[in-house]
């Protein structure tokens, strides 16, 4: 009888262990998914727990800064929500030692990508989820017959405004080769199809 109970518990533990492993794998964030970086025009919702007067929406100004009571001017452009949260926590701690600050997106006005050139529907597209280059081309209606699909460029700016061109060879992707070049696009990226 004791052996049956022990085997039953062992089976339960193995089943539960497998279940949590599968669940963790399903909820795993892709490693190549970079956090969203705040840009001018974005509206942030900032809340300090148990401090109603410090719960507000703030817009990121064109110069990249936000203003927040007791914290003053804080550079938000090019920072993740976690980085802004940490900066605000450090600045507010001198006034409130036990505080919890949360920063989230209320409206991401700058969260767009651009697809232009020899595609059927060029334009700007909202970046509401992780989108790779082939998905962006599909959103733009696909490439035209006259497109040079092996000379596509992704233009990307860094936090200092410097722009670089990332090559993309659509033909390689169609052949199942060089799939690593089908990168996830970031806010502000431009896909150019010559």
Written account of the structure:
With 194 residues, this protein is α+β, with helices and mostly antiparallel strands. It folds into 2 domains: 43-107, wza like domain (wza like fold), CATH 3.30.1950; 112-193, Outer membrane lipoprotein wza fold like, CATH 3.10.560.10. The chain contains 4 helices and 10 strands; from the N terminus they run αββββαβββαββαβ. It has helices at residues 2-26, 81-92, 133-139, 170-174, and strands spanning 43-48, 55-59, 65-68, 72-75, 101-107, 112-117, 123-126, 152-157, 163-168, 190-193. A hairpin with a 6-residue loop joins strand 1 and strand 2 (55-59).
* CATH topology term of the largest domain: Outer membrane lipoprotein wza fold like
Structurally, the number of domains stands at: 2
How many individual helices?
A: 4
Give the end-to-end Cα distance, rounded to a whole number of Å: 75 Å
Strand content: 25-35%
CATH class of the largest domain: Alpha Beta
Globally, the shape reads: extended
What would CATH call the homologous superfamily of the largest domain?
A: Outer membrane lipoprotein wza domain like
Q: Biggest sheet, open or closed, and with what strands and sense?
A: 5 strands, mixed
Strand ordering within the main sheet? 7-6-10-8-9
Unreliable stretches covering 5 or more consecutive residues: 22-27
Q: Portion of residues in helices? A: 25-40%
Mean pLDDT: 84
Which CATH architecture of the largest domain is right? Answer: Roll
What characteristics describe this protein?
194 residues; 25% helix; 5-stranded mixed β-sheet; extended; single chain; Outer membrane lipoprotein wza fold like; 3-stranded antiparallel β-sheet; 10 strands; alpha+beta; 2 domains; wza like fold; 4 helices
């Amino acid at each position: 009888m004791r052996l049956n109970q022990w085997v039953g518990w062992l089976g339960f533990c193995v089943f539960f262990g497998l279940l949590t492993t599968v669940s963790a794998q399903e909820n795993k964030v892709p490693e190549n998914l970079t956090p969203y970086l705040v840009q001018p025009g974005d509206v942030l919702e900032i809340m300090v727990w148990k401090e109603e007067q410090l719960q507000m929406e703030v817009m990121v100004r064109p110069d990249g800064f936000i203003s927040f009571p007791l914290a003053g001017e804080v550079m938000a452009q090019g920072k993740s929500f976690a980085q802004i949260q940490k900066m605000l926590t450090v600045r507010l701690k001198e006034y409130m030692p036990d505080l919890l600050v949360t920063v989230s997106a209320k409206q991401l006005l700058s969260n767009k990508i651009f697809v232009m050139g020899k595609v059927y529907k060029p334009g700007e597209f909202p970046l509401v989820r992780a989108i790779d280059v082939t998905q962006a081309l599909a959103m733009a209606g696909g490439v035209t017959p006259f497109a040079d699909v092996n000379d596509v460029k992704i233009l990307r700016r860094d936090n200092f405004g410097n722009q670089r061109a990332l090559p993309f060879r659509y033909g390689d992707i169609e052949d199942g080769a060089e799939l690593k070049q089908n990168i996830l696009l970031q806010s502000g990226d431009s896909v150019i199809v010559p």
